[in-house]
Amino acid sequence: MLLICFGTRPEWIKIKPLIKCFKGNMQYRLLFTGQHVDLLNNIDEDIQRLSIVNGSNRLDSIVTSLLNNDDVFEGITSILVQGDTTSVLAMALAGFHRKIKVIHLEAGLRTYDRDNPFPEETNRQLVSRLADIHLCPTQKSYDNLQNELAPGKKFIVGNTVLDNLVDLKTSYSNNIIVTLHRRENHDIMNEWFNAVNNLAIENKDYNFIIPLHPNPNVKKWSHVLTDVNIVDPIQYEQFVDLISDCRLLITDSGGIQEEASFLRKKCIVCRKVTEREESLGTFSFLAKKPSDLRYVFYEHINNFIPDSSHSCPYGDGQASQKIMEILKNV
After folding, report:
1. Going edge to edge, which strands form the sheet with 284-286?
2. Are 137 and 158 in contact, with CB atoms under 8 Å apart?
3. Which parts of the chain fold into alpha helices (H)?
4. Looking at residue 243, what is its pLDDT?
5. C-alpha 188: how far from chain center
6. Which position among 27, 33, 186, 229 has the lowest Cβ density within 10 Å, counted as fewest Cβ atoms?
7. How far is CA 327 from the centre of its chain?
């Protein structure tokens, strides 16, 4: 029996196509690890759940809460974890301790900078030492694992998030979509928001929209965004509709870089480094600090459609089917 673990919205979005593909074809159970506690309100599935008991350090609390839960592993022969959150590391470690096969979805992404992103870069490197099967989205991620001599079997499958997008059509409105939330940007979030707001003031013809992240370190600076349309967090289906229709994206997200490239949108990445190097210079462009944002924005706002010779480097929207065939034969 396969145990599919998830605990955050991005993890759910990336395993959802797998579940749709697996139904009637593979035996599995779902385990919710509890990082985004309100996530289950919108999921109609039979799910086991764990809860996180918070202590003084949230990351420590996640790890300690998810270990020593023997009952969830009864009858389990393999565990699938997705991505690089701390709950992914905890569940991979729990499986390793029990000699249960660990399958890592979205394996091999790297910046080789422990602080960017923190703690995700270290989490995914550790999971790569624990995993028995690595499902890599790209040749680059596969090569990273090969160069690290990571144990286990490695496969290039594309990214499952793209499986959600195959029926969407692309258009280019005057909307500029903004998402900023990453932990490494918290200390300078006011500077990022000021940079975005200044662009909105200078470009009244564009509608700057930010679904505001609920993290207190983000929300406390919302007053800076005087000329930006602030909206509450929205459901994923609505959000990808916004992406498919927008002119340009400004973000510090990882997954949005993949979705933007598949939907042929340019994406300004507000981070010092990105683990998704495959789309740099074609679909995604780094603004390493807030003072860079204005220059990068004006470099691309009037040349917003990516060159037609470039294809999405993260897959073709058929990753789930490929993964199911792999898992049936390993």
Report:
1. 229-231, 207-211, 175-179, 248-251, 267-269, 284-286
2. yes
3. 9-22, 58-66, 86-97, 120-130, 139-147, 189-202, 216-219, 236-245, 255-262, 293-300, 319-328
4. 97
5. 21
6. 27
7. 22
pLDDT averages per 10-residue partition of the chain, 330 residues: 94 95 94 81 83 90 93 96 96 97 98 95 98 98 98 98 96 98 95 98 98 93 97 93 98 95 98 96 98 98 94 97 94
pLDDT of residue 164: 96
What are the pLDDT digits (tens) for 82-130? 999 999 999 999 999 999 999 999 999 999 999 999 999 999 999 999 9
Ordered strands of the 101-105 beta sheet: 47-49, 28-32, 2-6, 78-82, 101-105, 133-136, 153-156
Q: CA–CA distance from 305 to each of 192, 257, 271, 286, 329 (Å)? A: 24, 15, 22, 17, 41
Planar angle of CA 105, 137, 309, nearest 5 degrees: 160
CA distance 181 to 215: 7
For the question of residue 310 being annotated catalytic, the response is: no
Catalytic choice (181, 213, 223, 310): 181
pLDDT in tens, 211-232: 999 899 999 999 999 999 999 9
Give me the residue label for tokens 């919205």: 9
Please report the domains of the chain, with CATH numbers, ordered by start residue: 2-159+315-328 (3.40.50.2000), 175-300 (3.40.50.2000)
Nearest to 110 by CA among 281, 278, 312: 278
CB atoms within 10 A of CB 140: 17
